[in-house]
Amino acid sequence: MVVEKHNPLKKSILQSELLGEGKTQIEEISFDLVKRLALKYGLATDVLYQMSAGKEASIFLALWKEHPIILKAYRLWHSSHTLSKKKGYVPPGTSKRSHVITDMMESLAVLEYDLLSKLFKAGVHVPTPIGRIGNFVSMRFIGDGETPASQLREITLENPERVMNQIFDDYLIMYRDVHYVHGDLSQYNILYWQDRPWIIDVPQAEKVDKHCNMLKIEKMLLRDIQNVLSYFEQYDIYRDPESILEVFLNSYIPDNKRHYRELVPEGLELL
Ligand SMILES: Nc1ncnc2c1ncn2[C@@H]1O[C@H](COP(=O)(O)OP(=O)(O)OP(=O)(O)O)[C@@H](O)[C@H]1O
Ligand SMILES: [Mg+2]
Question: Is the pTM of this model over 0.90?
Fold first, then answer.
């Protein structure tokens, strides 16, 4: 499968397709464009239809020979909220702005592809990544035939407690061994297939390393844990989110961040 080597200093092959020479506007990411580029760069042998359009990406059901695969195309120009000054906002109408946007789309695709690879290797149940070119990521299709697996929110579980434990077991591997927080874990981003949960949609994940803001990481972790727990309340399962958070934090904190709670100066919110 094709995986483009990421070089932040170099224009990706798709960037020139999306921008064109001298163009200041990025071409709208239509079904036909996605299909043309996916076939041209060998990510798929066919693209069947668009399955969903989320905040930052569109999801397509594609084929690799006769096997269904998922093609995720990031299209940040639809989500102006991500174009904050902090992330390098450049006024509209300049080609510099288009490059900033295509760079951002590409970096989300790079993050998703790389993190899915690490998670898969660590044993977390995620769609195995297959390829990446520019802002396109292809991955394993979770589902039967061409029918995608349900999101957790759409189904009623027979053994909810087991499923909840499987979710937290996988999330603990992600945090403790791969050193990432998901940042958007919920009944929407967990699929149910082959009798177990599968975690998806990881581009907003944050790395937990010696440079991280541990207070922010802790907040993200707690929010993910609370989101999962609130889904399970319908089954009359109640757990204390703080004690699950403690299990996570006790399993891993970067060495130089061990005393992060004491080190926060009075009244100074670092977030
Ligand atoms: N590998 C996969 N196999 C089967 N279905 C998938 C797969 N990846 C995504 N989907 C389906 O597409 C939906 C959207 O995918 P995902 O959450 O990755 O995209 P998104 O656009 O970032 O989402 P959003 O902005 O809505 O959170 C999922 O909820 C799921 O139903
Ligand atoms: Mg999602």
Answer: no
